Amino acid sequence: MRIPSFDPEIISSVMKRKWMVAASIILTMLLIPLVLFLMKKPEAETATVRRGSISQELSLSGEIDADEKATLSFQTGGLVAFVGFKKGDFVNQFQAIAALDQRSAKKTLEKTLTDYLLQRSEFDQVKEENLNRTPEQAINNEMKRILERNQWNLDLTVNSVELQDLVIQLSTISTPISGILTEANTPHAGVNVGPFAPQYTIINPKTIYFKVAADQTEVVSTPVGASGTIVLDSYPDKTISGKVSDVSFTPRVGETGTVYDVKVLLNIDNSNFKYLLGMTGDITFTTFSKSNLLSLPVRFVKTDARGRYVFEDPGKKKKKYIETGLESDELIEVRGIAEGAIVYD
Predict the structure, then answer these.
(1) Residues 175 and 91: beta-carbon distance below 8 Å
(2) Measured CA distances, 158 to 78, 108, 123, 152 (Å)
(3) How far, CA to CA in Å, does 230 sit from each of 56, 67, 160, 219?
(4) Least enclosed by CB within 10 Å: which of 221, 231, 265, 336?
């Protein structure tokens, strides 16, 4: 019996056709659901008319500042002889921070005191010689001028003594407030400094507040007594309550717009120095709030030439005209529609 032979090329061609048919069937099965999904019309979003409250909020940016700040300078130049504190130390009110070498000033004071005593002695002598005269020895104009000149010279020496004593007093810097020494441009003794150059800065951490910049349209919503909630960038998970204590009567100088400073007192204890100057954040004020209102999300309320309306069917063919009232960023008060009604976007 003769066994038939098969051509390998024919077999290969048949197998390729079978694989192509199988691949086409699989691809078709995968594409059909995708095409059906793409052809499916998306369902319209809905919202339900609900009863609740509507609030309008105003958010402003600001930073922490302090009421009590003092920049201290020497009123005269000289050699720094004493520095009692370093940067970061806490100092109490009226404590001496630093002092200049007082040896020269004290020697000058001694000299002016001696000049005063000499002038006082001469003044008393002239006065005695010219006033203790008999009636026949009446004082003439020249004698009066002698007495006046002596009085003036005495006054000059007194002024010299007082000025030199003031020089000694001003050679010591004392802090007018309690607080942290945040800047010390002359941290060590033994260096020369000039007059009026800022040397030391004291800030009282217990007097911090939140300083906000509000333009002329916003400042009317932040009157004295208004309360707000503050979130600092340094502590994003913590909220701080604050109350407006002052609104500047004049706008800031140098701003492109009309901007006012608003001072907000913080309801915190900063004895541990947790809140630092310059920390930035945002404060949110509730400008108005009303409860027991029917409302919808703002985007579901449309407007045309006739007025405000909502869609009552998913095909957006049936409009229901309504009245609106208070409006926030997200919700709007609606009237003329029943509570629980469903509207479409």
Answers:
(1) yes
(2) 25, 14, 13, 10
(3) 16, 19, 57, 17
(4) 336
